[in-house]
Amino acid sequence: MRSRQTDLLKNQSPEKIKKVWLLARLTALAIFILLGLGIKIATILMKINNNWVNLALIVYLVIVILAIGVRLLAIPWEYYFHRYQVFDEYIAFQQGWFFRTTTYVPFLRIQHITVDQGPFLRMENLATITIHTAATEHQIAGLNYDEATRLRKQVMDKVRQVEKDV
User: Does the keyword Transmembrane helix belong to this entry (predicted)?
Assistant: First the structure.
C-alpha cells in the first residue's frame, strides 16, 4: 500500500541524531566565523582599511549567523519529518518540514548500499545508510549502527529477490 504525500512514514532515526545535527551545525558556524575573522586579520595585516570591506564582513557574519541559527532552530522539525519505510516493492524516504518530499525507490533500481559513519555519528554509535541508484542516491541519516547494517541486509535481500523474479 502506497502512503499519501501528506502521510508520515513509519520509521524515524533515534533522537540522538538531533545531537549530531547540532554539533555539525555548530562546527559549521565556528568554521564560518573563523573564516570571517581570518579575512579581517588579513585585511589588517595588508593594511586595507576600507569601509566596504568592513561592511562586507559584517554582512557576511550576520548572514552566516542567521542561516545557521535558522538551521539550529529547525532541528526538531527536521527530525520529525525525516523518515523512511520499507515496503514490499520499494523503499520510501521522507524529508523536509516546510517542503515535504517523499521519494519511492523500487528495489529493482537499487545498485548498491553503503553504511557510513563520520566522527559525530561515531560518537553516538549512529550511521548513515546511502542507497545508490543509477541516477542518484538517497540517505537515511542517524540510524543506530546495528539497525543500519540490518536495514542494509534487509534491502539487499529484497533487491536480490526482485532480481530473481525478473
Answer: yes
* 86 backbone dihedrals φ, ψ, rounded to 5°: -100, 125
DSSP conformation letters of 8-25: PPSEE--THHHHHHHHHH
Report the 10 Å Cβ neighbour count for 142. 26
Torsion angle of the four alpha carbons 89, 94, 100, 105, in this order, in degrees rounded to the nearest 10: -30
Say which DSSP state 141 is in: E
* CATH class of this structure's domain 84-165: mainly beta
Q: Which three cell numbers stand for residue 31?
A: 568554521
Task: Tell me the residue type at 155.
Answer: V
The mean pLDDT value for 136-141 works out to 92
Contact 145, 126 (CB under 8 A): yes
Ramachandran bin of 129, using left for φ above 0, alpha for ψ from -120 to 50, beta for the remaining angles: beta
The whole-model pTM stands at 0.82
Could you tell me the residue ranges of all domains in the chain? 16-76, 84-165
